[in-house]
Amino acid sequence: MPIKTSRVNILNNPNKSFIQSxxxxxxxxxxxxxxxxxxxxxxxxxxxxxxxxxxxxxQLLEKNYYLNERIFLSEQxxxxxxxxxxxxxxxxxxxxxxxxxxxxxxxxxxxTLNIVVGLIYDEQIYFSSMGxxxxxxxxxEEENWQISDIxxxxxxxxxxxxxxxxxxxSIISGELPDKSYIVFSNPSLSQYLLGDEFVKxxxxxxxxxxxxxxxxxxxxxxxxxxxCGLLIKNTSSNSPEGDFKYYxxxxxxxxxxxxxxxxxxxxxxxxxxxxxITTFLNFINIFKKLPKLNKILARFKTTKKEKxxxxxxxxxxxxxxKKWKSKKILLIIIGxxxxxxxxxxxxxxxxxxxxxxxESASSFEELIEQKQNQIDSALLYNxxxxxxxxxxxxxxxxxxxxxxxxxxxxxxxxIESKINEQIAKINKIITINEPDELGNFNVIESQAxxxxxxxxxxxxxxxxxxxxxxxxxxxxxxxxxxxxxxKNDSIKNNGISINEKDxxxxxxxxxxxIVIDEQEKISFNNIEIENYPQISSFDIxxxxxxxxxxxxxxxxxYEQIPKENLNSFNRWIKDDSQNINPxxxxxxxxxxxxxxxxSIYEYREGKQSQKFSTGDIEPKINKANLMRLGxxxxxxxxxxxxxFVVYNYQKSGNNMESINFINQxxxxxxxxxxxxxxxxxxxxxxxxNGNVIYSINLIF
Length: 700
Fold this sequence. Notes:
Elements: E1 3-10, E2 18-24, H1 31-34, E3 36-43, H2 48-66, H3 82-104, E4 113-121, E5 124-130, E6 134-141, E7 144-149, H4 155-163, E8 171-175, E9 181-185, H5 187-193, H6 196-204, H7 207-221, E10 227-234, E11 245-247, H8 251-261, H9 270-284, H10 291-303, H11 309-380, H12 384-399, H13 403-408, H14 412-426, E12 429-431, E13 436-440, E14 452-456, E15 461-466, E16 471-476, E17 481-487, E18 496-497, E19 505-509, E20 512-516, E21 522-527, E22 535-541, E23 544-549, E24 554-558, E25 565-566, E26 569-571, E27 582-588, E28 590-595, E29 600-604, E30 607-612, E31 626-629, E32 633-638, E33 643-652, E34 655-666, E35 673-679, E36 684-689, E37 692-697
Parallel strand pairs: 12-34, 21-25
Antiparallel strand pairs: 1-10, 2-3, 3-4, 4-5, 5-8, 6-7, 6-9, 8-11, 9-10, 13-37, 14-15, 15-16, 16-17, 18-19, 19-20, 20-21, 22-23, 23-24, 24-26, 27-28, 28-29, 29-30, 31-32, 32-33, 33-34, 35-36, 36-37
């Protein structure tokens, strides 16, 4: 194609407007058959709705033009013009946009919209412009450049149409003269493009170089306004010169003409139906001209006076009877024909609807496949952000489909399945279908109810506490043997566990801190706790227990272990912590509190020092349950989401500097997550789900 394009998009002030100059790429090798669509918009309503509206418009134009099967027939049918298909695509896109806005209950002021939509095809340009965007023809005449304004004139009428939601108006069309330019721009850019300096740049430099030079000048001159433009140049040496002219027909009339031209097979022809009904009614009236009936009527008239009353009455009865029979027969015929006619209309409507749904499904199927390939390509190059954007586009496409259209798409369940797989890759979700089961506490107790586990990795042992059965269990990881370590009436609560500390494991069970060393020696330390049911977690630092009261949003710090009775504590948090909902704590020189939303707050000397957000993942963490801190990684348990999430962290000295998302592990088996312990030396995670312990290999 000898016509070249170049775009300008400079967003200096996002709070002023939303701008976008776009070339809508055709499918596969359709440029020669269908041409190139372009779109230039500025919306003086800078919000997410504006961006969404422009996205929907571009998607509808792409669907209604490039995915129209009549494009492929345009070479075979002489009376099927590409511009007619373009016009029809504009009208249909406008109608579907209004339907989408109505269905989604979107509040959008069309008067803020400035839009140009065009088609470049066979060295011809067709475009429709509404709003304040500008259009110019820059043409070389002798040694000077002549600028011609090719904008629509009736701006007041356009505003009325925009207010009603009509965003496409009359078509302007024409051939682009050799080595001349068409320039489309928003109002801000047009103020500079008409200056001698910019016209000189456009005339003397190649298109790409001219565009870059214009961008550089604009950045120096004005860094407040937003600039949006599209430059189109004809590089052909044989192109005849021509002027642009208005396409006189309004798009409403164009829709009727093009839809007649592009009529779908099986559609209802109202004109033919009207003709058939007229013919049928004329047929009904033929009974009035039947010769036999006329003779009978004539004979009744001539003999009526000559017959006596009895004969007259007899003849009148005969006449009435014959008339009634004739009418009855005709009424039956009319009823039958009407039923046939109605059945034919219903059948054709159904047939038309089915054909349209199949065509639409075929178009969507191709579009969905294209988007999925784009996602795979983005993931191949680890561009998760771009893949996420395309996923969102794909979700909008799928949400726009009716149930009938979905049923017509081949292998729609497989498409959904692939989308879910792609979403999982983007969100770094590792699905564990069959985690390795290491032990089930139900085999030890008939009603085992373990609620906490703790790992002593130096001796490959996992300990679990069961307050319901006053027991502590042991799972030997070397031989996978599960046994009861002890039973003690002091174990009255299901308990809370912590990370291994100094080759010991710790449990908190109501009024006891239970300590188990490498030799499986168990010690019990009495502890007095205010409002134990509100204690959601605890940890040990320098042999001092730290208990989190989630209701008070306070940390209790006790005296050192071992001691016969831990009955003295102080409230460690000194500042106002009402802005958080702490659920778990970890001590590591500083204290880290896990919020229910997944955020982590660092505390130093009783005061909050900084906050780390871990919520920028999908699905978002709505209700975190538990946190573990390893040597390099941090783990958050999300019971509601049937998963645990892994982050790495960076520290400078004793202070946390950053937390970065690594991946997340999900399993349908995680239907009752209770606790997690991690052996980073062997890349293993041990999960207590219900009364079963699973192991999972971790990928870092």
